[in-house]
Task: structure prediction
Amino acid sequence: MPPDYSPTITHLPNTEPPKRSSVWSKIFLTIIILLILGSGGLVGYAYWQKIGPFSEPPFTPENLLAGLTENLAKLNSASYRVALEIKTEAREANVEPFPLNPNTENFFLGEFPVPADFRFASEASGLFNHQAMDWETSNTQSQIKAELTGGDFSFSLDLEWIKKGLDFYFRINKFPTFFFFDLSAVKRVWVKITPADLAGDDWRVSFLESAPDLNEELQKNQEKFAEGAKKVLQIAEEEKVITANLPKRREKLGEKIAWRYDLTVNRESLIKFYERLLAEFPNSNRSGFDNLKSPEAEKVFAYLATNGRFSIWIEEHSGLVLAMVYHLRFVPPTGTAATLENKQISLNWRLELTGHNLPIVVTPPTDFKTVKEVAEKLFPDVLEKNRKKSEQAMIKAIMSSLRAEAELGVDAKGLYAKNLCAILSDKTKEASTTIACLQSDNQTSWAAHTILDKEIGNFCVDSSGLASSSPTIHATGGGTKPAVCKP
Result:
C-alpha cells in the first residue's frame, strides 16, 4: 500500500474566542480620565493666568481714566483711522424731538434747512508719530477723504501727503469742481516740495526756515501742557465726571480681544469739575460754567444721555486703546425743519488705532513732479509773469550796482576809467541783458540803460546817482557832451 500522506488532525476542545469589550472599555475610561485631568489643568492654568473665561478687564470702571492716562503717555506711535458720518435717515419710533423751544433759542436749523437726503462722510488715516526727537526726523503720512451729498449738490475730496525728512509730498486724487478751477493736470500725481521750493524767490515762503524754531518752542511747552492735562484728568477722575459701564462679555476687534466700556457724563459731577478748574486755572472762561448750570443744559444732557452712546474698546492684555465710537441720533425741535419731517439726523464717529508702538516706516514716492513743473501746468501765464518780474528785478539790481562799480575805478583826480563802459558791460553778462553805455571824453560822466519790456520800458543809471525806469528813458550825450539819463 502506498504511504499515507494525509495530514494529522488533532481535535482541540471546544472553546470561545476571548472577549475584547473589557479591554476597550478600560482604554476609553483611561482617555476620559486623561481628558478630565488635562481639562482641569487647562482650567487651572487659565484661572491663574486670568485668560479665557477667567480673563479680567484691564481697568475697573473706577480707575478707567487713570489707566488710560498712564497708557496713552506710553503710546509713541500708531496707525490711526478716524471716520465721521452725518446723515439723515428714517426716524426711529422711540426718538423724541430736541427739547429746547426754537422760539426762545437761536436754533440754526430754522434758518438753514437740511436737505432730506443729506449725507456727509469723512475719513482721515495715517501715522501718529511721537518717536521723533526733532522736526527733521518726524516722518509721517496721512490721507483725508470726504463726500457730501444733499439735494442736487455733491462733492468728493481725496488728498494724501507724506513728510520724509525735510521734504513734503502731496497728491490730489479727488477735488471739488465747484471752484471753477481745473486740476486735471495734477490729479493722481505726486508732487514734491523741498525747503528750497518754499524759500525760493519765486514763492517767498519761509515756513520751513522757522519750523525748527517752532519745534523747539513746542518742546518747551510740551511739559507744561502735559502737566496741565494731567491735572485736568486728575480732577475729572476725582469728581467722577465720566462713569463707565463694563459689559460682562469680551469682544473681538480684528485679531485682538478687547473689553468695551460704555461711558456717560455726569452733569452734576461736571459742574463740580468745572468749579475746581476755575479755581485751578483762574483765567479760564466762566461763561461756559454759567451755561452748564442753566435749566436748558439739564435738558440737553438728558437728551444726549437718551440718544447718544460713547464706547471705548481696550485691549485685554496691554490696556491700549483699540477703538472709540460715538453715536448720536437727533431730531430737530418741532416746526424748525420742514424737510426733516419723519426724519432724524444720525452722527457716527469712530477712531481706530493699530500697530501700537511699532517703528515708523515712511517710504516716499519715486515717481513725482516738482512744484515748478506743476505750476507751469496750472499757472502758465502767472508763472511767466512772475519769471519776467523776477528777471527784471535782477536786471534793475545789477544796473543799480553799476554806480558802485564805476566809483571803484575813479582815480585821484576824480576821473572815471577810460574803458568804463567795457567794464560795466562785462558786469551785466550774468543778467543776460545788453546795456547801451556812454561816457564823456573828459571821463567825468557816464550813463547806461537797458531795455526791459513794453510795459516798463527802459531802466537807466548814470554818474549823477540816478536810477530810474520809464518807457522812453535812455542814456544820451557822451563824447564832448556830458553823459546822462534823459526821457
In short: The two ends are 163 Å apart (CA to CA).
